[in-house]
Structure to design on (1147 residues):
């Protein structure tokens, strides 16, 4: 502060460690009336004013340290006014008695107050009396106005006396000798005391230290005594209306309020955009200087001392004064409920001054002095306002720590305290106050968010969670249980808390506090201490980052992490990758960000509108991202790109989905632990989860999460990492303009099928793509939602008919198949197409493959996937066949028999026969509609007529044999005879195992059947059975032994074995089994009835009936004889006519 007036020191105390203002004037030797060496007595005590009040201090001095030092000669009277020898009281009276020196306690104007307020043993010590009287603030104990005036004149003369320095030289003789800088100061210019103040922290001599402290206490009791302060701030005092009472009026010691008022004006100016009143630069320096000089002893801040005296007794009774310890203690209790508002307000003002000038904190300035110099954190060419700010100091030193440099433990401890202080009270950051004033109500504006982001960087809670007191208190129980293995204060505590977010161990309050902090940490990669430590080299190499406390508009903090994770998932072929340590940290951060959409700054920034539009009701854990993925096609372009990139990243490393991983932990440990342990996932883990989605160990949350990811994958083939990597080149070449995964799969599958059918020498789709394509096709069959077109076409039908059926395990698809006839046209067509695909490739039939999994391993381990159903059908009646699998095979057989197109083997075998014999049926049929077994019925009739090609005949024989055992395999019979079956053959139809009982029942009851179409179907069955005994299971079972004995040499087919049995029946030498004989007679009667009821419709039918008749030989013999007779008659008639013609010619 500029020096003005007599005795002011010509230079300010600017070096680190200066806490006190340069002392004006010199002090006379006879301070106490007992010689200069009595300073030790009058100044005894710890600090200026102590912490228990004047009475307590004086009692301690008397009891603990003695009351007097040595006396040097007779005391001289002490003049109060300039030039005066003896002080005069207000009435002009002389000083106290001769020989003992002048005493304050003996002045008439103060005697009553001294007796009333001060201990008797202190009356002989003028400074003890002064301290006692000036520390009184209680209304009931106010001192008189005249006494106040006397005290003011006493202090003024005391601080301006030219002998002030001489006392210092005497009291601090040994200290001056030890401190070379002070010993070299010139005599008589007041520099000595200034030097001693500068080196106060190094003074070990008790009396010298107390001398400097006591004089400072006197000066700071009134701003007018502070050298130059009045001159620098007079105009500002008037401008801010900080003027206090005039001298001579009551309570002149309230002048400390003036300094407090100016300090508040300075703080308020920093918190306003356009301050109405501005403090002059000269006064600003003076205010901050006073704050700096009062930084070690809270008694020197008179306003704060009086405001917090009771709170000091309450909270900091055992805290020794000096070196800012009381300040720090009070700061730590600032938010206690019992802290008085007056004290809290004074402490806040003090903290705001520290935020503007770190030197206002004695302990911080002292502890970090060498580190600030070492790391150039107070560079001379920087503006004073910037380098003095607490935030600049913290960020500069934090940068050194993050770079791995050594910062002293004392300094780091102080930094921790002040980082915590800034976190506890947002009002200490002027930028936040400014942004709150400008921001809209209810919204956190951009400026406010940036100010908060800056605060988080300054305080750096990511390095030590304890800095955030709210988080520390809220999460204490969680840390004690879930993170007790981590050292307190370790940066990994935050990571541990994030890992337990949304778990049973997490408490709600901790969850909120943690997400609040992570919101800001996620927006600047440097704020995650572990990430920065492990990745700063990679970030500098790959992302061209700057230092920890440097920012760049070209590379904002959020962009650095994006750069890192792009490189984290590069393959070796793609070029530069992250180090292993950094990659692990990037994955950890991605896992944490997946917990909540707000922790991904890019996602929240680009998708804010879409979140409000589509996901306003999705507020549960993880629902927001799922919602965005569900509405991917509806999102705005920027948001769609961000969600798409994130989903693509998840497909490569599903462990990023921390919530899903947590839900699927049991499945992963049981079935997928090998792929989960891989450092590089590459989509293997999700593939494993999909394959085991229906294991009994699978829980509902995991199943839902896996299915959701499958559904999201259908929106873009890039979302399936393995598929993308295997088929990327094939897609670009063969399906360039297709994006949706299902369309890409169809495109590639069609190409593969065409190449296979055309026996192409070289497949257009690469082998690795064909393999992965197969995996994708199989996965899509598990859930109808993975077939978007089918799902959309059948949505209403699902709602109407399958509402309570679960989606998984292809149960919805199976439900639709079973009620196919009731479906809407569009859905029916889609289901038919699906069945056609499944029958061509049974491996795509999810239900069949699931139900018959073990039977396939038993009976068809080496069968080709396309022949799987055929293999199962051949082993259907095996004794060891699983009943559920047998039932499923029957279902598929029923389906196949409804339409020849659903039976690829039949279709191929009869491709010439179908258009030849059944073209009229094909002409009537519409595209994509089922033929309800009409074509197969047509082929059955032709089989009975023995007109089919050998391959087709073999296939139809199998169908007839199977349907003869189970009426459900004959769709035409079931459709036309449903009423008759329920009325006439209900018991047979209800049998658990179908062995032809229903067909036999219908044949026996043929005469009772009224419906013409049903009767026709039964007659057709009879007709078919004449062609081959194998298609009549009841008859075949009854005559099995007879066929073996009498017809073993006759090959089956074309009615040969049936003719053999008929001949044996007519041959009286052959004895057939009674049951066989009975069944044969019954069949003959039925055939006879059939011939009457359904006569031949044409010559071809008649010929067929003859050829298939058991009496074929007899009929053919009769026909042959008849033809021969006709031939002979013809010959005879020809001779006669020829003779008649010759006779006519002869005429």
């Amino acid at each position: 502060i500029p020096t003005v007036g007599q005795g002011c020191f010509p230079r300010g105390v600017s070096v680190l460690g200066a806490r006190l203002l340069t002392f004006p004037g010199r002090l006379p030797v006879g301070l106490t009336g007992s010689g200069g060496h009595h300073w030790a007595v009058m100044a005894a005590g710890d600090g200026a004013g102590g912490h228990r009040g004047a009475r307590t201090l004086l009692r301690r001095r008397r009891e603990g340290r003695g009351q007097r030092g040595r006396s040097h000669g007779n005391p001289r009277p002490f003049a109060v006014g300039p030039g005066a020898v003896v002080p005069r009281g207000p009435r002009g009276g002389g000083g106290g008695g001769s020989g003992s020196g002048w005493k304050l306690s003996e002045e008439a104007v103060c005697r009553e107050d001294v007796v009333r307020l001060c201990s008797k043993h202190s009356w002989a010590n003028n400074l003890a009396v002064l301290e006692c009287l000036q520390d009184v603030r209680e209304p009931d104990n106010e001192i008189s106005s005249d006494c106040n005036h006397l005290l003011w004149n006493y202090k003024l003369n005391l601080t301006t006396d030219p002998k002030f320095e001489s006392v210092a030289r005497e009291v601090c003789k040994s200290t001056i000798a030890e401190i070379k800088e002070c010993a070299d100061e010139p005599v008589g210019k007041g520099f000595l005391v200034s030097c001693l103040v500068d080196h106060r922290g190094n003074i070990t001599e008790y009396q010298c230290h107390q001398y400097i402290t006591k004089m400072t206490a006197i000066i700071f009791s009134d701003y007018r005594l502070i050298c130059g302060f009045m001159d620098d701030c007079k105009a500002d005092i008037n401008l801010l209306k900080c003027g206090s009472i005039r001298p001579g009026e009551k309570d002149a010691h309230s002048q400390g309020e003036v300094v407090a008022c100016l300090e508040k004006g300075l703080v308020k100016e920093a918190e306003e955009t356009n301050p109405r009143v501005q403090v002059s630069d000269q006064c600003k320096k003076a205010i901050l200087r006073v704050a700096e000089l009062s930084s070690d002893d809270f008694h020197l801040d008179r306003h704060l001392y009086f405001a917090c005296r009771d709170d000091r007794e309450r909270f900091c009774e055992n805290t020794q004064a000096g070196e800012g310890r009381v300040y720090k203690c009070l700061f730590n209790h600032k938010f206690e409920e019992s802290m008085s508002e007056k004290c809290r307000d004074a402490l806040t003002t003090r903290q705001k001054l520290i935020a503007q000038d770190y030197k206002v904190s004695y302990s911080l300035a002292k502890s970090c002095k060498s580190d600030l110099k070492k790391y150039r954190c107070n560079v001379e060419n920087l503006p004073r306002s910037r380098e003095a700010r607490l935030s600049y100091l913290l960020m500069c030193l934090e940068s050194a720590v993050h770079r791995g440099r050594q910062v002293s433990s004392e300094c780091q401890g102080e930094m921790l305290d002040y980082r915590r202080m800034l976190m506890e009270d947002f009002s200490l950051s002027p930028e936040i106050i400014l942004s709150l004033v400008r921001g809209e109500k209810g919204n956190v504006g951009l400026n406010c968010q940036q100010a908060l982001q800056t605060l988080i960087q300054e305080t750096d809670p990511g390095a030590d969670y304890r800095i955030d007191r709210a988080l520390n208190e809220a999460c204490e129980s969680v840390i004690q249980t879930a993170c007790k293995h981590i050292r307190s204060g370790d940066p990994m505590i935050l990571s541990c808390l994030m890992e337990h977010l949304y778990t049973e161990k997490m408490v709600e309050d901790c969850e909120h506090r943690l997400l609040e902090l992570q919101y800001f940490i996620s927006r600047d990669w440097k704020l995650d201490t572990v990430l920065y430590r492990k990745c700063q080299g990679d970030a500098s190499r790959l992302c061209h980052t700057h230092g920890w406390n440097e920012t760049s508009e070209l590379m904002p903090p959020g962009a650095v992490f994006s750069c890192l994770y792009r490189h984290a998932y590069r393959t070796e072929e793609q070029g530069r990758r992250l180090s292993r340590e950094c990659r692990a940290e990037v994955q950890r951060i991605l896992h944490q960000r997946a917990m909540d959409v707000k922790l991904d700054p890019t996602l929240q920034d680009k998708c804010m509108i879409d979140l409000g539009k589509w996901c306003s009701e999705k507020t549960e854990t993880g629902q927001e991202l799922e919602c965005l993925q569900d509405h991917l096609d509806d999102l705005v372009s920027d948001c769609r790109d961000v969600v798409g990139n994130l989903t693509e990243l998840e497909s490569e490393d599903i462990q990023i989905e921390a919530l899903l991983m947590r839900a699927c932990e049991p499945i992963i440990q049981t079935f997928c632990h090998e792929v989960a342990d891989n450092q590089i996932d590459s989509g293997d883990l999700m593939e494993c989860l999909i394959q085991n989605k229906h294991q009994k160990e699978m829980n509902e949350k995991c199943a839902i999460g896996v299915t959701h990811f499958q559904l999201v994958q259908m929106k873009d083939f890039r979302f399936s990492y393995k598929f993308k990597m295997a088929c990327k080149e094939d897609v670009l070449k063969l399906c360039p303009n297709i994006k949706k995964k299902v369309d890409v799969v169809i495109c590639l599958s069609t190409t593969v099928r065409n190449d296979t059918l055309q026996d192409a020498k070289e497949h257009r789709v690469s082998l690795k793509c064909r393999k992965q394509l197969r995996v994708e096709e199989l996965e899509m069959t598990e859930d109808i939602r993975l077939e978007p077109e089918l799902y959309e076409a059948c949505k209403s039908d699902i709602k109407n008919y399958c509402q309570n059926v679960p989606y998984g395990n292809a149960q919805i698809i199976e439900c639709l198949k079973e009620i196919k006839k009731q479906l809407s046209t569009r859905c029916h067509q889609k289901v038919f197409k699906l069945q056609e695909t499944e029958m061509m490739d049974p491996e795509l039939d999810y239900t069949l493959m699931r139900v018959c999994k073990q039977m396939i391993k038993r009976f068809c381990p080496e069968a080709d996937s396309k022949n799987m159903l055929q293999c199962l059908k051949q082993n259907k009646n095996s004794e060891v066949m699983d009943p559920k699998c047998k039932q499923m095979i029957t279902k598929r057989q029923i389906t196949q028999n409804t339409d020849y197109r659903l039976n690829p083997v039949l279709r191929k075998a009869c491709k010439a026969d179908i258009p030849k014999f059944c073209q009229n049926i094909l002409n009537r049929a519409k595209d994509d509609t089922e033929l309800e077994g009409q074509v197969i019925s047509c082929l059955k009739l032709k089989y009975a007529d023995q007109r089919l090609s050998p391959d087709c005949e073999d296939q139809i024989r199998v169908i007839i044999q199977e349907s003869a055992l189970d009426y459900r395999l004959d769709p035409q019979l079931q459709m036309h005879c449903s009423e008759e079956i329920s009325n006439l053959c209900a018991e047979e139809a209800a049998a658990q195992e179908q062995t032809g009982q229903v067909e036999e029942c219908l044949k026996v009851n043929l005469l009772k059947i009224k419906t013409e179409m049903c009767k026709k179907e039964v007659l057709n069955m009879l007709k078919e059975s004449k062609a081959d005994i194998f298609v009549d299971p009841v008859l075949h079972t009854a005559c099995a032994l007879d066929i073996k004995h009498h017809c073993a040499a006759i090959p089956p087919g074309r009615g040969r074995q049936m003719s053999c049995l008929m001949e044996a029946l007519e041959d009286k030498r052959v004895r057939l089994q009674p049951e066989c004989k009975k069944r044969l007679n019954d069949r003959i009667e039925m055939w006879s009835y059939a011939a009457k009821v359904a006569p031949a419709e044409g010559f071809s039918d008649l010929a067929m009936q003859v050829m298939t008749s058991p009496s074929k030989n007899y009929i053919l013999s009769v026909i042959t004889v008849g033809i021969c007779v006709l031939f002979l008659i013809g010959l005879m008639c020809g001779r006669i006519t020829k003779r008649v013609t010759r006779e006519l010619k002869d005429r």
The radius of gyration is 53 Å.
